[in-house]
Amino acid sequence: MSSLILCKSVKASKPYLFTLTDTNIYTIEELCYYIYNNIYIITEKIFDESLILWLKDEFNMHELSEKLSNMTLHGSSLKDIVVTIFCSADYYNEKNIKDIIEVIDMLEGMPLLLRRKIKADNYLTYKNYSLASKEYEEILDSPDINKLDSVHYGNIVHNLGIVRMNISSFYAAAECFKEAYVRNNNKESLSHYLCALKLEHRDDEYQEAIRMFSPSKDDIMNIEERFIKLRKEAMATKKFMAIDRLMTIKGEGRVNEYYEVIDKMIVNWKTEYKNKRAVRR
């Protein structure tokens, strides 16, 4: 487990492995934590005989093991199984349990990939771009991805484009938005695609996209207005100005100066990182 968890119970002599995420757990608290934080990808199937025997053999939790055996035998719901496990450990409070019940109710009957999309969307909402990127890419690489309709597929690719605007490049994002629009036919994806091309200075591709997708004059006007707004916001940041200057130097073929500027930027980023770590402490 990657996070620090306060455990009051006995630690297992042998960990239990959740093959779905390649995660080992050692305590009942870690089991609760794992369930809580992976609820979007968990189904009743993970609560199988091997997990029940592990709880019985490692922690002497005979009563819980018997309950879970009966529940799985009689096809109890995921909600009932989760609540039973949570109530057997003093790790989550009543509010936490009510919160997870609400999530389970929302997810009931939803395909696994769409559940994972919600998880990825939450990462994106809170600007955890690396985890969002990983989750979206794993969804798109899933053998079940073709079971999704074109709208849901396109929306996933669109959100991956949002991630790439923040951690990669405008052009990488543009490619996502283009594919998203082809699949979901959503004007928002087209707007993002055209804006990303303009932000990347891909004027020829921008004009080609206009010819290909034939947006209305009003749509083009809205896109141009959005581009102007985004560019003003971007140009107001020091990092954008530094990168824009770097691209100008590269375009003019000033190789030595280009690498000198890169070296300075790296030093500055390292300094910023160290300062942020110091503040957090």
Quick description:
This protein has about 280 residues and is mainly alpha-helical.
Model description:
With about 280 residues, the chain is mainly alpha-helical. It folds into 3 domains: about 90 residues, no CATH class; about 120 residues, Tetratricopeptide repeat domain (Serine Threonine Protein Phosphatase 5, Tetratricopeptide repeat); about 40 residues. It is about 70% helix and about 0% strand. It has 14 helices and 2 strands, in the order E-E-H-H-H-H-H-H-H-H-H-H-H-H-H-H. It has a two-stranded antiparallel sheet. The two termini are about 25 Å apart. The C terminus is likely disordered.
CATH structural class of the largest domain = Mainly Alpha
Count of DSSP strands: 2
The CA-CA distance between the termini, in Å, is: 23 Å
Structural class: mainly alpha
Number of domains: 3
Shape category: elongated
Main beta sheet strand tally, sense and closure: 2 strands, antiparallel
Averaging pLDDT over every residue, what do you get?
85
- CATH architecture label name of the largest domain: Alpha Horseshoe
Strands ordered across the widest β-sheet: 1-2
Q: What would you report as the Rg, rounded to the nearest angstrom?
A: 25 Å
Q: Keywords for this structure?
A:
Serine Threonine Protein Phosphatase 5, Tetratricopeptide repeat, 3 domains, disordered C terminus, two-stranded antiparallel sheet, mainly alpha
